[in-house]
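User: I'm preparing a small set of examples for a lab meeting where we compare how different chains pack in three dimensions. I only have the primary sequence for this one, and I'd like the structure in token form so I can line it up with the others. Please keep the answer compact; I'll paste it straight into my notes.
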Amino acid sequence: MRLLLVEDEHDIQTFLKQALADAGYQVDVAPDGKTAEALATSTAYDILIVDLGLPDVDGITLILCLRHIGVHAPVLILSARRSVDDRVRGLEQGGDDYLTKPFALAELLARLRNLLKRNSPGGGEATRLRVLDLELDLLRREATRSGQPLQLTPQEFVLLEYLCRNAGRVVTRSMILDKVWGMRIQPDTNVVDVHIYRLRGKVDGNGQQPLIRTLRGVGYVIKER
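Assistant: Understood. Below is the structure token output for the 225-residue chain.
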């Protein structure tokens, strides 16, 4: 799941970015409305967290702008504005949920899960990915192979999700670095190879039919059949 966090308070931004990444989300951060609009119009996000007190534009104005230009991802409003009028206005002007500061991380994560489930088509079926006998529950951030749970780290889950979303297509190391790590590390690093090695040991271990293939000098692919 890819998430856009629009928050200008550095401490909250840093805390949430790490906490959400630990929970298995791919997180992009925008400190202001202009950056948020540029990111939201160039990247498909599953959900947005928007603070109302941005330095260049009111968060409500930003949400209305994003809705107008066709960004339909659910929005969780995060704000220090606590009055009933503020909450009602936020929900009436394009927000899907409203959480006031200070907040409990567990509640924020629960609200995100509920928004994703509520806004997924097909009664929640879109919250699952399947490749043969491999299944990913995108809400619970859990994976199983032949019905057996796989003990994945949050980063391994994000990597496996990306492979599954591109099942049958080769993805290069550069593509993985961009989509999974957000190019936050040097392009010549071996972090992709290390994570693929560990992931393959968990997904294809115990005599299972190999799913994850390496195309030497090109990239990786997870087979559809």
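A couple of notes for your slides: The chain has a mean pLDDT of 86. The chain is about 40% helix and 20% strand.

User: Perfect, thanks.
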